[in-house]
Amino acid sequence: MTKDISTDIAIIGAGTAGLYALREVRRARRDFVLIDHGPLGTTCARVGCMPSKIALHAGGLWAARDEMRRFGVAGTEDLTLDRSRTWAALRSQRDHFADSAAGKARSAAGERLIDGRARFVEPTVLEVEGADDRTLVRAKALIIATGSRPVRPAWLDALGDRVVTTDTFFELPDLPERIGILGLGAIGLEMGLALARLGVTVSGADVASTVAGLNDPELSARAIERFGREMDLWLGAPASVTADDDALRLRSGEREARVDLLLAALGRRPNVDGLGLAEAGFALDARGTPLYDPATLQMGSHPVFIAGDANAQRPLMHEAADEGAIAGYNAARDDIVRFRRRVPLAIAFTDPDVCAVGAHSDELDPAHIVIGSASGDANGRSRILGGEASLLRLYADRADGRLRGAAMVATGGEHLAHLLAWAIQRGETVHALLEMPFYHPVIEEMLQSALQDAARQIGRDSPLPSGLRSAHDALAPAPDTEPSR
User: Mean pLDDT per 10-residue run, the chain (485 residues)?
Assistant: First the structure.
């Protein structure tokens, strides 16, 4: 039986991008349908951001035994860890986040939620295949928010269930004693460190010569040295995996290790290949990704918009939320708006965190920037927290001191990264930021030190004490305060 539905807007995908698009569509009071084949619950909540952070938290708790002993805590050598219970606790907390996201989708869509897989018949007509029926959806505008899935090369298929991705990794009843990780981007590095801190022997390999996508040579070297203390990092050579009796043999260059399980962390692929886009007349690139305007998210001249991981532009949760809002806003209106995107911000929660904000170092002309640096071994708070290996690098315009970007390997880096993203988006300069208050002892003093380093290179000395202004400064007068007693 085939049902025929006409609506203003059809949204394919009930993940982060789809739900933020739906919010804008409802705000515009437009009729809609939300299509998803399940399971409901965002990628972030089910298999991405949230379970990986729970794993890192658990690993940090267990690894803290060494620091406890240093401060005189006795008996830590008698502690035991049941990793199957660790993973069960992770799933329990993960399910809370996933169920919450699924509940929001059901609540927001109500009876307009269609369970099934959508395929384009025409640019504004969808065929949705459900478990027991088929629905033809005719819409005035459509939004593709179908998310992504892990990359799993076909050559790994012969190894069967001894190879997992993040879609299946958190469902394991127990953790292996030895694991290999293929791919050391943000997720591969995060999971490798979480497992190493839980006592698993980890061997990680990547054809790239860096980890977590770092392209600043000094930060890359710092990260490799720091994280190499906890897990094997095999970089700069292709890797191979073969069966070895009841285990696997991971090889990279002249290095090899016998592992019980392999985690393929090779990135994610947009879920657009089953939508019939080419047949419906949409233009695609060589990889099969739809061509679209990044400022409007519109696909060609069609009233169709693509948001979130599905467009492979910025596959991060907060970016998916922004893109969903852009797509929903434009789909619900006749006049399409071009949006200016927020400053790029990426964080790997590796403790020390690996963060990149704004422009990357390889995108900037070295002749036109200065690099302000600060190290954790000179920051009191970082030393207290065991963050002596921290390193912060700021990229500022040599002519006017405007911040262009930053990158770091830093304890508490997630907070520094947000401060810097806000500052870069507001167009702040090195000298203006030095006028802000810095408490002691805090990790933020690393930012102050890096700003001072950049300011020295730029010049423009003032006769006033560093960072302080005259009370007669008309642009930002100092507030009146009572004299100290």
Answer: 92 97 97 94 90 97 93 94 97 95 93 96 95 93 96 95 95 97 97 98 98 96 98 97 95 96 96 95 92 97 97 92 98 96 97 97 96 97 96 97 98 97 98 96 97 93 70 54 41
**pTM attached to this predicted model:** 0.92
Q: 20-33 burial string, b = 16+ CB within 10 Å, else e?
A: bbbbbbbeeebebb
* Nearest of 267, 247, 242, 273 to residue 258 by alpha carbon: 247
Question: Taking a C-beta distance cutoff of 8 angstroms, is the pair 352, 387 a contact?
Answer: yes
